[in-house]
Amino acid sequence: xxxxxxxxxxxxxxxxxxxxxxxxxxxxxxxxxxxxxxxxxxxxxxxxxxxxxxxxxxxxxxxxxxxxxxxxxxxxxxxxxxxxxxxxxxxxxxxxxxxxxxxxxxxxxxxxxxxxxxxxxxxxxxxxxxxxxxxxxxxxxxxxxxxxxxxxxxxxxxxxxxxxxxxxxxxxxxxxxxxxxxxxxxx
Length: 187
Ligand SMILES: Nc1ncnc2c1ncn2[C@@H]1O[C@H](COP(=O)(O)OP(=O)(O)OP(=O)(O)O)[C@@H](O)[C@H]1O
Ligand SMILES: Nc1nc2c(c(=O)[nH]1)N=C(CO)CN2
What we know:
Layout: E1 8-10, E2 19-21, E3 23-31, H1 36-48, E4 53-58, E5 62-64, E6 76-85, H2 89-102, E7 117-123, E8 128-129, E9 134-135, H3 144-153, E10 158-159, E11 163-164, H4 165-169, E12 177-179
Antiparallel strand pairs: 1-2, 3-6, 3-7, 4-6, 5-6, 5-12, 8-9, 10-11
2-amino-6-hydroxymethyl-7,8-dihydro-3H-pteridin-4-one is lined by residues 30, 64-69, 76, 78, 111, 117, 145.
């Protein structure tokens, strides 16, 4: 009989000898400004280059109608990335924000056009609600631009407290979420 590896690593942050579990995370990326596809590709490459993050799956690229954005806003390209990570959720958020900054995002008004948006949707069953981080992402369950690409790469996906992605999709209008067969994000 073969022994499967224990999914724990030594906790290098605290040096306590504690162990942090490997958790599966879901990251949503979006862009509606400039070279949208190049920015999504750059975000995935930057995630993969992050120590303690391993990209497990990348969805197709979807072109999506802007949600909650001023009328006349450009369409977004969106995708979802599944990762395995041993990072703490706050360190993962810091990395997501650093990747946004690296691609020149300027924070102006809410829902302003963005070169790159990197949202942490879920990390295993972790729940957070503080000034910097809310987990699960509080609006993910009603966003077709998150749920449609997520279902593609993770048919069993679920949002703690909300339910299965496959069921949540049934409650929303996904007509504004269209797969771009001509585009692909590579690892
Ligand atoms: N799960 C999360 N993922 C990403 N950012 C989060 C999360 N929870 C809280 N935040 C906070 O939200 C801030 C980013 O807000 P931002 O301006 O990107 O919102 P948005 O992307 O326009 O809208 P939305 O939050 O609805 O996607 C970050 O500074 C971060 O601290
Ligand atoms: N289609 C689409 N709409 C949005 C998006 C997005 O990524 N795609 N992101 C938002 C804020 O995070 C607000 N609206």
